[in-house]
Design goal:
Largest sheet: 9 strands, mixed
Radius of gyration: 21 Å
Structural class: alpha/beta
Distance between the termini: 32 Å
Number of strands: 17
Bound molecules: zinc ion
Helix content: 25-40%
Low-confidence stretches: none
Length: 442
């Protein structure tokens, strides 16, 4: 007898949707059928519900020993699980993840405390650590974060050299692209203002466009697979699209906060919406939705990067003193279902592609993750598209106790999350102990 059978759900498969059943054995999907699968030890009735692959969030800041108050593996991965995310790729925050002991420390902490499966990005890379790429790769890491701007700026030449090393191991260079020269001009002009909008205005569309274009030229020259983090502008989308037309191995992401908020929201939420890159205009937001729909933007990830209320509050009097970043991993799927699928901006298949399948493909986790097919890990997120919720930080698992989406009504919620065939969250409650998550070497 198989371990588990999930029946009567509408299942999103690579070839389209079916109403059917999934049997699971030893944590993997054993069979998928319209009907007739033999009884399992455990049965789940998903009648009236939709089953998608567990969400893969490739840009999550969960842990830094410097920021114990912001998030840790247990809290951040609980938030992920409750929100239907079954795999995260953990991004370094400030403490570099570029050497053996540091990598082993993070893997060890994750294995002891994570609810969901996790992989790691190395970074933040610097001119000095470029040559360590092969050594880092030995620890099961294949993606490398680089910045074109402060506070971890690498020169464009150094990034191109990094790409050569990353190309040699078949990895991905993951770039935060805002041009420091353009940013410096903007910051200099606005530094005397201290209000929250000053920070947003200091980071222009031009800064993003300039950096993306330069980075994509290096990507074309080195033929290194390159991923542009958190695109925020119309110009950024166009630059990525052009590079793709020319055949570059480039991919790009945007984040839910750029799909929901614009600068106008900073009036209300001030430093809580201080993010890098900054929020842009309604026209940019519309361009991001369009790019996501037509594939110029490949994936959505959260750039989950909470800071405490105390840290954020400072920004009302001096925005330059507040840290950047918003929590987002637990509201990720509800926001995208509600703003994307329910509002008709994305089909359910497009959502699954941009939040499950494509992220797994781009970062070397496919077909183990990101797809419902026989042999893949039984990572399933069960949705109720009719269920509604008013988002409230009280019901979320973040350590920091706030969300920029407070009070927002969403329709379409994850109601159950399975990781490797085990229910890890149900109705927003975590049902396994910390440490259920495994490290995914790539
Ligand atoms: Zn980030």
């Amino acid at each position: 007898m198989v371990d588990l059978v999930v029946r009567n759900g509408r299942i999103v498969l690579p070839e389209g949707m079916i109403t059917g059943e999934i049997s699971i054995e030893d944590g993997r999907i054993c069979r998928i059928a319209v009907s007739g699968l033999p009884k399992g030890d455990q049965e789940i009735d998903a009648k009236g519900r939709i089953i998608i692959p567990g969400v893969v969030d490739v840009h999550v800041h969960l842990y830094d020993r410097k920021f114990p108050n912001r998030e840790d593996f247990a809290s951040g991965s609980s938030a992920a699980a409750a929100g239907g995310v079954t795999t995260v790729i953990v991004m370094p925050w400030d403490t570099p993840i570029v050497s053996g002991p540091c990598i082993e420390e993070v893997i060890d902490l994750g294995c002891k405390n994570s609810i969901v499966d996790f992989a790691l990005h190395a970074g933040n890379m610097s001119a000095e650590t470029i040559k360590k790429v092969p050594e880092i790769n030995c620890f099961g890491i294949k993606s490398f974060k680089a910045f074109t701007c402060d506070p971890y700026q690498m020169s464009y030449d150094a990034i191109e050299e990094l790409m050569c090393y990353v190309k040699a191991i078949g990895g991905v260079t993951f770039v935060h692209a805002e041009d420091q020269k353009v940013l410096s001009k903007g910051i200099k002009a606005l530094k005397r203002r201290k209000d929250p909008m000053a920070h947003a205005e200091s980071r222009s569309n031009e800064a993003e466009e300039e950096a993306i274009k330069k980075v994509l030229k290096s990507a074309a020259r080195t033929e290194c697979r390159t991923h542009i983090a958190h695109v925020t502008t119309r110009q950024g989308c166009e630059a990525v699209e052009k590079a793709k037309e020319k055949g570059s191995h480039v991919s790009a992401e945007t984040c839910p906060h750029f799909l929901v908020f614009t600068r106008e929201d900073i009036e209300r939420l001030g430093p809580y919406l201080k993010v890098n890159p900054s929020l842009k205009s309604p026209s940019d937001r519309a361009a991001l939705w369009e790019a996501l729909k037509n594939g110029a933007i490949d994936i959505v990830s959260t750039d989950h990067a909470p800071a405490t209320k105390e840290e954020k509050e400072i920004g009302w009097t001096d925005i330059w003193q507040a840290p950047s970043g918003v929590p987002g991993v637990e509201t990720f799927l509800p926001i995208m279902l509600s703003e994307g699928v329910v509002k008709g901006r994305l089909s359910l298949e497009q959502l699954v592609n941009s939040m499950c399948t494509k992220p797994a493909v781009l970062f070397g986790l496919y077909p183990r993750k990101g797809v419902i097919q026989e042999g893949s890990d039984a990572d399933l997120t069960i949705l109720d598209l009719n269920e509604e919720m008013k988002i409230s930080a009280d019901r979320l698992h973040y350590k920091v106790g706030w969300t920029p989406y407070e009070g927002m009504r969403v329709r379409g919620l994850p109601v159950m999350t399975l990781l490797r065939g085990k229910v890890i969250a149900e109705g927003g409650k975590i049902t396994v102990a910390p440490g259920f998550g495994q490290f995914l070497p790539r």
